[in-house]
Amino acid sequence: MSNFGVFFKYWAESDGIIIRAAPNFLPAQSKIEQGRWFWSYHIRIENSSDQNVQLLTRHWIITDGRANVTNVDGEGVVGEQPVIKPGGAHDYVSGCPLATPTGSMQGQFRMRREDGSYFLAQIPKFNLIAPASAK
């Protein structure tokens, strides 16, 4: 699916929330000779439920090409805890450095419905793969 010129190859659905992901390798931000590869990733959160939902926290599981795992937890996304109306969406872009030219990211957002109940929306696992010219 494409939105804003972005091809979202990865997606997952949880409790009426669809999360799409599109990673992009950034050679200009990478320092390959120093063992640092950098990706941006575009996340789109779509609300197909019948209630407003608010994104409260994030939990990321980042795995590099050597199977080293880093867990990242925090409030909201890029400084926001957006409320997403039924039929609405929230987009954001962030970044991830790795010490290897390949890896993956996955995780979950803790969400609250307007009725006060909580649930976890799964972030699909997506691959971070630098092009052969950047390895």
From TrEMBL:
Residue spans crossing the bilayer: none
Record InterPro entries: ApaG-like (IPR050718), ApaG_domain (IPR007474), ApaG_sf (IPR036767)
Domain ApaG: 11-135
Signal peptide: none
Pfam families reported in the protein's UniProt record: DUF525
UniProt name for this protein: Co2+/Mg2+ efflux protein ApaG
Organism from which the protein derives: Sphingorhabdus lutea
